[in-house]
Amino acid sequence: MNTVDVSAAGPAVKVEERLFQNRYLVDAGRPHIKIRPHEAPSKALLALTHLCPAGCYSRNDKGQVEAVVDGCVECGTCRVVTAKTGEVEWNYPRGGFGVLFKFG
Amino acid sequence: MIGERFDAIVVGAGPSGNAAAYTMAKEGLKVLQLERGEYPGSKNVQGAILYADALEKIIPDFREDAPLERHVIEQRLWTMDDTSYVGMHYRSEDFNEEKPNRYTIIRAQFDKWFSGKVREAGAVLLCETTVTELLRDTQGRVIGVRTDRDGGTAFADVVILGEGVNGLVGQRSGLRPELKPDSVALAVKEMHFLPREVIESRFNLKGNEGVVIEAMGTITDGMTGTAFLYTNQESISVGIGCIVSDLVDSDRTPYGLLEAFKRHPSVRPLLENSECKEYAAHLIPEGGFNAMPDLYGDGWIVVGDAGQFVNAVHREGSNLAMTTGRIAGETVVWLKRRREELSKANLAEYQRRLEDTFVMKDLKKYRKIPAFLHNNKHVFGLYPKLISAAAQTWFRVDGVDKRTKEKQIFKALRQGRTLPGLIGDAVKLARSWR
After folding, report:
1. CA A63: distance to chain centroid?
2. Cα–Cα distance, B101 to B320 (Å, whole number)
3. How far is A68 from chain B (nearest CA, A)?
4. Is the pLDDT of residue B92 over 80?
5. Which of A100, B162, B341, B355 is the one with CA 20 to 30 A from B278?
């Protein structure tokens, strides 16, 4: 996963350590975000590999973009960025599922 | 789902939805409120600062039991480069008043409290229920909602959409367009815990006094954005946000930007030895007045972030949310008392009332600012560097005489930006600010 930011000075920044602090109720087998099958991602879809604040998006060895949305914080950035290309199907998780902010 | 008919359905239990539901329920209307989270607040993210005035107009004695963190006695505005900040700090004993003006809050706790007041006032709240679409009659009037709770429906005379920035229900029903990447900011935030006496000594505070820091500069790597650091009782909220279209073009990650801000030599000592207990991200609608969608129609009203009610320059949003929610609620109560239809023509009263408040006045005043900040990236990179260099030249005592130092400062300014460029930026800012 492309979840390490090498631009910041100092030790590498991993998003997984942050997400580990959060509470989730994962709707197993029913991801609320789906990527449309594609040969090559658009610039917008590709940007999600660094843009997603939960690091949900990554490139596979064929260059396609994949998503694992268990750590999603439901911000909606991927939806807004790909609205024009329609590559991401985005819904809220079913009522009660998804991230549960303790502080918000 | 719920057989009986309601006077109003409120979608969402954030500040705008709670303000609307409370205002209507208190006046005896039958209100159903739907929230997709397990509890109100579980999906909501904010810095967060509570503006007392907006809440006082809804719950005058909120200070008696609301979960408030610290009242703000000091505001720090920082312009940062990689090693420095130039700050404007305002601290006043006058803010230690009987009814303080601003408080830091923790949203999950605050929203739960506010929701309790809504239910005490008589509204019916259903959590873990996501609204999936609006229901319309043959004339296109909104008459209710469909939810994901067994596909259940609920009907009412009016639906108030306080569904937040993503606002899927209104968008998919064609009430408003999709958000644009250049008019929405992505903010990430962490909650860092420290003993309260450590916070008080680091920020020079006593009791429930609090400090807020708003910062801009090279921390956003040339992108339009700001960072913040707010003191709570036993925690510090720290975050950074940038316009989404800038983040698309950058190769930086949001959490990388946040980490770099936390590692800045001016910030790191404030957070030292703290324990991070949550990481959140949220969109902020920053398009302002020009991005504002239709605010009402036949059988519906939009309030809060879903209606783009955010003053990005002043970092205000929750007060606009509460005020639009309250006024939407008051408009519905007023129309119901007069036994008038909740039609588009009659609900125009909502916008008329908003025009008389700070909400529309401020959004109109700053309508050109989003475009200015988007098109003048110098504000976020070059100027902070120049200001810091000028301050350093001025304050460093190194045997150079003061007249030469003045010349060095002006030379550096002119090298960074041509004189017409400097004047042009100032004129454009002044025009946008007016």
Report:
1. 17
2. 15
3. 17
4. yes
5. B162
Cross-chain Cβ contact A80/B127 below 8 Å: no
In chain B, CATH 3.30.9.90 sits at 182-285
CATH architecture for residues B182-285:
2-Layer Sandwich (3.30)
The mean per-residue pLDDT over the stretch B234-244 comes to 98
pLDDT for residue A52 is more than 50: yes
User: Is B277 in CB contact (< 8 Å) with chain A?
Assistant: yes
Nearest to B267 by CA among B235, B211, B229: B229
CATH number of the CATH domain containing A29: 3.30.70.20
Identify the pLDDT of residue B357.
97
Q: At what angle do helices B318-337 and B358-365 cross, to 10 degrees?
A: 130
Nearest residue of B to residue A25 by CA position? B38
Indicate the pTM of the whole model: 0.95
Q: Which CATH superfamily is domain B6-67+106-177+293-355 in?
A: FAD/NAD(P)-binding domain (3.50.50.60)
Q: So what's the pLDDT on residue A9? A: 58
pLDDT level of residue B166 (50, 70, 90 thresholds):
very high
Helices (H), B69-217: 107-120, 168-172, 196-202
Cβ-defined contact of B255 to A94 (cutoff 8 Å)? no
Given this model, what pLDDT does residue A10 score? 65
Q: B227 touching A, CB under 8 A?
A: no
B432 or B288: which leads in pLDDT? B288
A4 in Cβ contact with A13 (< 8 Å): yes
> What pLDDT digit, counting tens, does each position of B217-230 carry?
999 999 999 999 99
Element (H, E) at B276: strand B275-285
Is a pLDDT exceeding 90 seen at residue B242?
yes
Distance in angstroms (rounded) separating the CA atoms of residues A59 and A76: 20
Residues 176-205 of B with CB under 8 A from A: 178-181, 184, 186, 188, 190-191
pLDDT score recorded for residue B423: 86
